[in-house]
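User: I'm new to structure prediction. If I give you an amino acid sequence, what do you actually give back? Let's try with this one:
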Amino acid sequence: MSGLRSRKSLRMSESRLVIAVVAAATRTAFFSQWLSHACFACRISSIARRIAGDRRARVRVDLRGRSDFERDVLLKAAEIPHGEVRPYGWIAAEIGRPKAVRAVGTALGHNPVPLIVPCHRVVRTDGTIGHYSLGGPENKRAILAAEGLDPDAFERRSRAGAHYTGSRTTHIVCNPTCRHARRVMDKHRVWFRSLDAAADAGYRPCKVCRPASGAGAVAIPA
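Assistant: Good question. You get back a string of structure tokens that encode the predicted 3D arrangement of the chain. For your 222 residues, that looks like this:
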């Protein structure tokens, strides 16, 4: 019964997210036109599936008017899986602009399609959750919680210096929320303050979450 309640709660949370994204979307000229399309219900269904973590759901967005840098930032943020987070520095490094951490934060702060491009999955390099353009940090925390992430636990580990996690059986080190890292049993899990510490212990970076991207980036001020 508790599992059924949890699934219902999750579906209700996802529904609220869809309502939020539609409300935000209608504030832009592009989406006012987009939402008036005859296939509105189909598009809402695709949004709901995408928000729920279905990477197969196709949601087309129009990023015309954005700079090349802004498009690169938004498209890279769109790659972050449901229920996972990456630091701003990770995006900066992944798009080949490792020193542009602050500019990444600015670009995400002007994300025209929050939730569809999930800027809520990008956190500060120091491990704190950070700001959010769609209603502030509390909304960001609520959305991440709806996706299965515990923001408070994430921040506690970061404050304790646990920025990366590895498996004693595979000797692979990941970003803490990587789907592969979450499969590691507690008895096999080890935490690291830095990738240098992980490398010194004989661990190699995960090829899926690529924790080396942005490992040396500076934190964006609060």
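You can read the tokens as a compact description of the fold. Here is one thing that stands out. The first helix runs from residue 2 to 25.
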